Automatic annotation (TrEMBL):
<dbReference type="Pfam" id="PF07261">
    <property type="entry name" value="DnaB_2"/>
</dbReference>
<feature type="domain" description="DnaB/C C-terminal">
    <location>
        <begin position="187"/>
        <end position="251"/>
    </location>
</feature>
<dbReference type="InterPro" id="IPR034829">
    <property type="entry name" value="DnaD-like_sf"/>
</dbReference>
<feature type="compositionally biased region" description="Acidic residues">
    <location>
        <begin position="168"/>
        <end position="177"/>
    </location>
</feature>
<feature type="region of interest" description="Disordered">
    <location>
        <begin position="259"/>
        <end position="311"/>
    </location>
</feature>
<feature type="region of interest" description="Disordered">
    <location>
        <begin position="150"/>
        <end position="177"/>
    </location>
</feature>
<dbReference type="InterPro" id="IPR053162">
    <property type="entry name" value="DnaD"/>
</dbReference>
<comment type="similarity">
    <text>Belongs to the DnaB/DnaD family.</text>
</comment>
<protein>
    <submittedName>
        <fullName>DnaD domain protein</fullName>
    </submittedName>
</protein>
<dbReference type="InterPro" id="IPR006343">
    <property type="entry name" value="DnaB/C_C"/>
</dbReference>
Length: 311
């Protein structure tokens, strides 16, 4: 699966980059932001030997750069014991979009961090509230537990107010996720299919309006499982639209309906994603996407229509 990292064009206009970073610093900084070990949270494991190999530097040069970025520029921290590095402003520029997929990814990656102090180092610069809360859960709670040892009465009041505050924040998160979910289809496309051009972007928006973002993502997932591209996913969406499918529950219901009658009497079975499954096919994804054309006189074999409408 392809992995992409975002580098803003403002990087080159930042006064610190222009005035303080040397050409070697700029190269090293871009490497820290885009190398293959990077994660969604801005904290990842990497050895000095790998840095030196990737950039063509000596270990001494890498040590010098890490020292400069840690003590002088204060843009990163490297833990010699765990071999983890944290990028200070990662959260400020890499969490422009949210939603459940991003939150789930951040949760799972934070659990893998060995040096918890690195989480606080990055979390302090995260602007997006729902994501910042995930970072804070690793260091704010530690401070709270220390305060709890001072007064039981204050504990009870703090616990009550905290619970109420958490409930309100959870409600806000749900609202934000619903508002941001429309962006997830575009994010999913870029993470799995590649760069999103304006034409495909408009197609995604149209399908999100006609159906739902959930269905658009589900169609792309099914295309990926079959090692197909966007045209395949769009063929699935067309079939769902023709069947007036509007929710994932309705999609799964059609899947079950297909499975329950699959292979009966040696007949072809119409799948919920628009494909035709013949008896003897190995799986639900074994058929072709499309619908059979009506038979015409003189034709003994049906033709299969592809998602792009070509026979």
């Amino acid at each position: 699966m392809a992995k992409f990292r975002m580098v803003h064009t403002e990087f080159w206009d930042d006064p610190r980059v222009v005035e303080e970073l040397t050409p070697e610093d700029k190269f090293f900084f871009l490497y820290l932001l885009t190398n293959s070990n990077t994660t969604q949270i801005g904290i990842y494991q990497i050895t000095k030997k790998q840095m030196a190999f990737d950039m063509g530097y000596s270990i001494e040069s890498v040590n010098s750069l890490l020292d400069r970025f840690t003590n002088h520029h204060k843009l990163a921290i490297y833990n010699e014991n765990t071999r983890e590095i944290a990028i200070r402003n990662w959260g400020k520029y890499n969490f422009n979009r949210g939603g459940k997929p991003v939150l789930d990814c951040v949760k799972s990656e934070l659990k893998m961090v060995k040096d918890i102090s690195l989480i606080q180092f990055v979390g302090q610069r995260v602007d997006k509230k729902d994501i910042k809360k995930l970072y804070e859960s690793y260091y704010v709670t530690c401070d709270d537990s220390t305060e709890k040892g001072k007064s039981n009465e204050i504990n009870d009041l703090d616990d009550t107010s905290t619970i109420r505050g958490q409930e309100k924040e959870e409600e806000k998160e749900e609202e934000q996720q619903q508002e941001e979910f429309k962006q997830d289809a575009a994010d999913f496309y870029q993470q799995n299919f590649g760069v999103l051009n304006p034409f495909i972007g408009q197609c995604l928006t149209d399908w999100e309006n006609d159906l739902t973002p959930e269905l658009v993502i589900e169609a792309m997932k099914r295309a990926l499982k079959n090692q197909k591209k966007w045209n395949y996913a769009e063929g699935i969406l067309k079939e769902w639209a023709n069947r007036n499918v509007r929710t994932l529950q309705e999609v799964f219901a059609l899947d079950k309906e297909f499975e329950s009658r699959g292979g009966n009497n040696g007949k072809n079975n119409s799948r919920s994603d628009g494909g035709i499954e013949k008896q003897g096919s190995s799986s639900i994804t074994g058929g072709q996407v499309g619908r059979l054309r009506p038979k015409s006189e003189g034709l003994s074999m049906p033709e299969v229509q592809r998602p792009d409408g070509i026979y």
